[in-house]
Amino acid sequence: MRQLTEGVYWVGVTDWNLRHFEGHEISVHRGSTYNAYLIKDEKTVLVDTVWAPHADRLIENIKEVIDIGKIDYVVANHAEPDHSSALPAIMDLVPEATVIVSRRGEESIKRYYQRDWKMKVVTTGDRLSLGSNELVFIEASMLHWPDSMFTYLTGKNILMSNDAFGQHYAASGLFNDEVDSTEVYQEAIKYYANILNPFGRLVARKIDELKSLNFPIDIIAPSHGIIWRQDPMQIVQKYYEWATGPARPGAVIAYSTMWGATAKLAEAVARGLDEVRADYKLFNVAVSDKSDILTEIFLARGLLLGSSTINGLTLSTLAPLVEEIKGLKFRDKIGAAFGSYGWSGEGVKLLEEELQKANVKVVQEGIKYKYMPNEAELTECVAFGRSFGEKLLGNG
Amino acid sequence: MRAQVNQDECIGCGGCASLCPEVFQLGDSGKSTVISDPVPAEHEAAAKTAADNCPVGAISLA
Description:
heterodimer, A: alpha/beta, Metallo-beta-lactamase, Chain A, Rossmann fold, 2 domains, seven-stranded mixed beta sheet, six-stranded parallel beta sheet, 12 helices, elongated, B: alpha+beta, two-stranded antiparallel ribbon, 2 helices
């Protein structure tokens, strides 16, 4: 338990050893936290819970602040189980409490838990008096589920934004001014790129709406990671830039190789980018972290995919990355493909098709070489990289 | 340009109404409805953005 400000407490859980999230979809190298907040006024409110395996710890933390039976309301900003699956444990202790949800939250919470809790459905602008202060609710649908909602506490000027503005980051400190800001931003951008990017257009609109509400904001308290207290609007500004701004004029070269031929092509393409001073990062996807590569793809304008052909297809180690780029809806990207082959050689064509499905504009025809590239062919790869680099820099 | 929202697929997230309020609005059913059909020329780009960003692909433009 930690106090945010008078009458408002962090009662969440820090998991230092968590390494994968949303099942095993996303890597979280620095652990994470499940942030839940307790507000003590004339009425007592718990805002969000934690993942069910940590329910006991949440309950202990609440008991450090109050008699748990005093909880009048539990706000469920979002039904994803990392925030709501301790609800049954809490509600068993306070069966008379009211669960506050968005319109879509009513559906998702009922579907998940199938319990007859007292529920109050709120929409944007609805207020709930707690005594001296009020809660104000702001629907934030598709940031990042239909049910997502923000809860604002007047008087204390705290925006509890649930998954928006969060990071998977375990720390001994609670606030951004107590931790290393470089680490926090590495995790914040990875979180945005891997989770929120498909909804970037709506992120920008929501920020405009938030600003138009003119609420004073002293603290932004997300549901994962550190709480933004020092210059809290910095993360809102960053989100706006990530949602609307241009990507870096650089490239990610992501490839998979069986006996090293495609790796040679990748390195020669990189030499070409280097020759025109285009920025690049090179990843052998089979030995790299998928979520980290996706963050780099988000940041860069160019994406070069490489694979050898196996059984008429591409290497299976490349498939998870390719699947993700189709789902994450990156915008304004250019790409191209390359690869080695032994006999049939469909891989490059398939990669080009996948790039197109991911809305990446294929700006030059792919290159493929049989078995092992010779010196002349490697020179062609360098020219391929140079040509792509010039397009990235706007000279091609 | 004509816009249609498939009422079976719509999840009522309101994304389209946020991105193109001149054409889409959440109706009493909680689902998106087209309020300006055909789509006025000046809102075609916004309507396309809304369709592209519909999380369930429920908006069709023709």
